[in-house]
Amino acid sequence: MITIKDIAREAGVSPSTVSRVLSNHERISEETKRKVRDIMIKLNYHPNIMAQSLVSKTTNTFAILLPRPAEELFQDVFFGELLRGILASSSKHHYDTLLTSTSSTYDEDELINRLVLGRRVDGVILLSSRLEDKLIKRLNELNFPTVIIGRTEEEQQLLSVDTDNVQASFDATTHLINQGHKKIGFIGGSSNLTVSIDRLEGFKLAMNKAQLPINEDWLMDSDYLQQSSFRAISTFFQDENRPTALVVMDDHLAFGILRTMNELDIKCPKQISLVSFNNIPLAQMASTPLSSIDIGTYQLGYTASQLLIKRLTQPSTVLNERVIIPHRLVIRESSLNYIHS
Amino acid sequence: MITIKDIAREAGVSPSTVSRVLSNHERISEETKRKVRDIMIKLNYHPNIMAQSLVSKTTNTFAILLPRPAEELFQDVFFGELLRGILASSSKHHYDTLLTSTSSTYDEDELINRLVLGRRVDGVILLSSRLEDKLIKRLNELNFPTVIIGRTEEEQQLLSVDTDNVQASFDATTHLINQGHKKIGFIGGSSNLTVSIDRLEGFKLAMNKAQLPINEDWLMDSDYLQQSSFRAISTFFQDENRPTALVVMDDHLAFGILRTMNELDIKCPKQISLVSFNNIPLAQMASTPLSSIDIGTYQLGYTASQLLIKRLTQPSTVLNERVIIPHRLVIRESSLNYIHS
DNA sequence: CTGAAAGCGCTTACAG
DNA sequence: CTGAAAGCGCTTACAG
User: Do A285 and B256 touch (CB under 8 A)?
Assistant: First the structure.
């Protein structure tokens, strides 16, 4: 492995000078710079990054912390898009990205200690939206540069990027109301995620505003649905008093619902209309193309990374800045042409 | 930031001793160990990882190199599953994982130099299956610990993990033949990927073995399909002499085909049967649940990581070991109940 | 069983 | 404009 000393010897200068050439120090003569650089290229020299980190006390790296368990997350294209956004911004700013996940709360603590106290990374992006997240508390205590993708209950001194889920769900619901629906149900995600809670709230707000009744039997969450694997929903669908439209937490879930409807020979959108969230690429390929709220997943990731880098490079950054990424409703067949009764 | 010296002072020992406690050196008395460890915990000490790396000349980190452009890759759940597998194995063995992507060939070179020559990582996992990959050549030259997911043309001194794509495609095609199909088409992926080439080969082998004719008009690749956005395929479907079954490069593509068939009112599987690849979670949620080859994506990632770690920790590892992950055909409606004519 | 010293490959005041 | 020296936070022969 070739080092700064080798270059120095070959160029007939001191290691200090080589180091200064490396950082393009202004008080090094152009001639020396040229000479040293030529030799660097000739010997294919590249500075040892660990050595640089040690003295600069900076790693130019941040970690993406995945909530445990990561299984579900990875199943979703959503996650890939988010990563893509994060990477695009981080590599543009010459930051490396560490991808980390944990399998238990104990591991989480260990991980944070190792990464943060061990000076392994300069900051973290946290993909989490559980209520009462201990990780968040800890990062906040340590005053460690952190961007949360999603919302937390407490007001912390941390940066965050999020969708306005209340508004997004309000918009989705209102769209259905505008299509003439009065009997609308809501199929939520895991009930301890803030995203589920917020979207349910948005749904209720829209229903209230339109002075439509909310039928508790038409509110479900996917914790429940997964166990009973759509049998529950079949029963629900066969009820004579069923909703004519559903707001569904994500496109994958909507696919499952479409499938069940197919089997029961219930037509979408004529008998039951659907609007879901995330607008995955396959949404338009569904047997009935899905209306879906596009939450700008790539943008969410890109902005999170950008915000973190800003925090790391500009000390004046407001410590609890919160960025909301705009969403938009993409209307397709699944919520059109409802036949008014 | 608290260092080994702080611990040493507090414990009344030398920094060397603290370091030895850290690595659980055998010739340190249990009493000293206990004393030092208590203080470490009390002060919440964690060793500076960069300093450790500098002296050990090892980073306990490897990089996942994503082929450029990463866009398509991320669209696919396949990629998420792969990452999940890689992470599961790497975190189990206490390795960190850097996720890197590049946007140009120039960047690729820069990246390799920085990561490899800059001693940023101990090894790389390369997601690539282009023919003639310069990255691969370079890594091979440098004799840098590398695992390729996928196949390359040249025989290199590199480790690799792959699916037997020829066999997988042979199996898919044979399944259709066994269902009574004689007119079978093949919809490939991007034509410069080895995976496309191999699967086409497997398709042809199966057809030949069954002594069925291969109609060149029924062979397409998705480069072509994407531009013409399924209009091409419509024309193709409306031809009187069309195939009764298709082998399709991946589930996403199959969704698009199903959608087109829906529009043209061509029934799946009765009029055209389908078998595709990857078995994404949504495959079973398609309007006609998709028969698909499960290539064990998670396993592919897990094994790649495992192999790399083996190479890094056991110098005796065979340098060009190649692991094939078994595949299996998951049969669903899309390839059943074909009506023999 | 433990300590003093040298060194990993850089950077950066300080001095000239 | 450039060099010698100290130091970043560790590890590890060497010596005792």
Answer: yes
The average confidence (pLDDT) of chain B is: 87
CB of B78 closer than 8 Å to CB of B296: no
Check residue A174 and give its pLDDT.
96
The residue assigned the tokens 């219930």 is: A266
Instruction: Check if the beta carbon of residue B258 is closer than 8 Å to that of residue A285.
Output: yes
- Nearest by CB to A98, from B46, B97, B286: name it: B97
- A53 chain-B contacts, CB cut-off 8 A: 50
CB atoms A59 and B77 under 8 Å: no
Alpha-carbon distance of A68 to A17, in angstroms, equals 48
CA–CA dist A112, A285 (Å, integer): 41
The pTM is what? 0.91
**Residue B272, amino acid:** I
| Closest nucleotide over all strands to A2 (CA to C1') | C9
Dihedral angle over CA of A236, A242, A248, A253, nearest 10? 30
Question: Which residues, 6 or more positions from A31, have their beta carbon under 8 angstroms from its beta carbon?
Answer: none
- Mind giving me the DSSP string for A1-44? ---HHHHHHHHTS-HHHHHHHHTT-TTS-HHHHHHHHHHHHHTT
Cβ distance B48 to A59 less than 8 Å, yes or no, reads no
Asked if residues A64 and A127 have their Cβ atoms less than 8 Å apart, the reply is yes
Tell me: the pLDDT tens digits for A158-195? Answer: 899 999 999 999 999 999 999 999 999 999 887 777 88
Task: Say which nucleotide is closest to residue A52, CA to C1' distance.
Answer: C10
CB interface of B with A, residues 100-159, below 8 Å: 100-103, 113-114, 117-120
- Number of CB atoms found within 10 A of residue A288's CB: 22
């193709």: which residue's tokens? B236
SS3 for A228-276, per residue? Answer: HCCHHHHHHHHCCCCCCEEEECCHHHHHHHHHHHHHHCCCCCCCCEEEE
pLDDT tens for chain B, 341 residues: list them: 899 999 999 999 999 999 999 999 888 889 899 999 999 999 999 999 999 999 999 999 999 998 766 566 666 777 888 898 999 999 899 999 999 887 776 778 888 889 999 999 999 999 876 666 788 888 888 889 999 998 776 667 889 999 999 999 999 999 999 999 999 999 988 777 788 889 999 999 999 999 999 988 888 876 655 545 566 677 777 777 889 999 999 898 899 888 888 888 888 888 999 999 999 888 988 889 999 999 999 999 999 999 999 999 887 777 778 899 999 999 999 998 766 55
Q: Domains (ranges, CATH) in chain A?
A: 4-47 (1.10.260.40), 61-164+297-328 (3.40.50.2300), 165-293+329-335 (3.40.50.2300)
- Nearest-by-CA chain B residue for A61: B98
- Residue B100 and residue A117: Cβ atoms within 8 Å? no
**Residue–nucleotide distance: B53 CA to C7 C1' (Å):** 14
For the segment 39-78 of chain A, residues whose CB is within 7 A of strand D:
51, 54-55, 57
